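Dear support,

I submitted the protein below through the web form. The confirmation email said the job was done, but the results page showed an empty box. After a refresh the structure appeared. I'm attaching both so you can tell me whether what I see now is the final result or a partial one.
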Amino acid sequence: MSPLRWARTAPGFDGFATPSEHVAGAPVHLARLDCRLLTDLGCEVIVANSRKLRAIYQNERKSDELDACMIAKLARADVSLLHPVKHGSEQAQRDLLRIKLRDNLVRQRVNVISSVRFTLKALGIRLASPNTNCFVKRTREYLEPRDPELLDMIEGPLRVIDEMTQRIRQLDREIEQLCDERYPETKRLREIRGIGPITALCFVLVIEDPHRIERTRDVGAYVGLVPKRDQSGRSDKELSISKCGNAYLRRLLVSAAQYMLGPFGEECDIRTRGLRLAERGGRGAKKKAVVATARKLSVVMLSVWKNETH
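What the results page shows now:
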């Protein structure tokens, strides 16, 4: 039995897969377990980026055996051809779960609020658009003197929204506490205008080690905020951003950039630069300015983090 197959049946693996399966063909959630298990066993683990291995996933005679053979040949020729992926630590994955749970709750709360608003709108009742945190209070104040029977009918969804709001606030406090106690480096990042605890903590958890990105400017490509390129001869197309890396971190950076360029953003060099880009005009000038500002924010955050560790 090969070492990889033996590792899959080793004590402590709890039989997540049969001995006949290959590590190279494991799903993402099992690939993390495979990587940690094999590393603990003293093996050198290389996790290939499946998006970059077109020779494998577009093979007309694709099979697990041929896939493993191709991966072995590429690893022996040049490991960089596999575009190795480095998994985050288990602790970082657990801490990142709090942020993702909060994001899921926020999205679900928006869906429930929209459902209540559309239901009332069908009955001819138009509610104002207050802050999400006080939607329940404003709705009760509006309906109680006018239509208490209708208020009783939607009391269930209102209680769900209220409970979600309380849970979101609790997660906000837990994230703040996590930043202060376990990740003090986020304190410096939060001094950047437009960067809050969630964005700072997510950035730290995704990057983990700031020194593994040698050139600070490369962090923009790491989070997928640089344009793709398709150049051949005199043709050099203007393409959209690559959207590689962590999608949630990229969304947080874009949200921070939108806030910074909005009416409530404080004056700073990054905001001035972004507004100057937006004033150029042309197709999608404002969107390009937001993306450029988000990319600049990621570079500044990594630079501040690196300088703090020296």
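Response: this is the final, complete result; the empty box was a page-load delay. Residues 1-25 have pLDDT under 50 and may be disordered.
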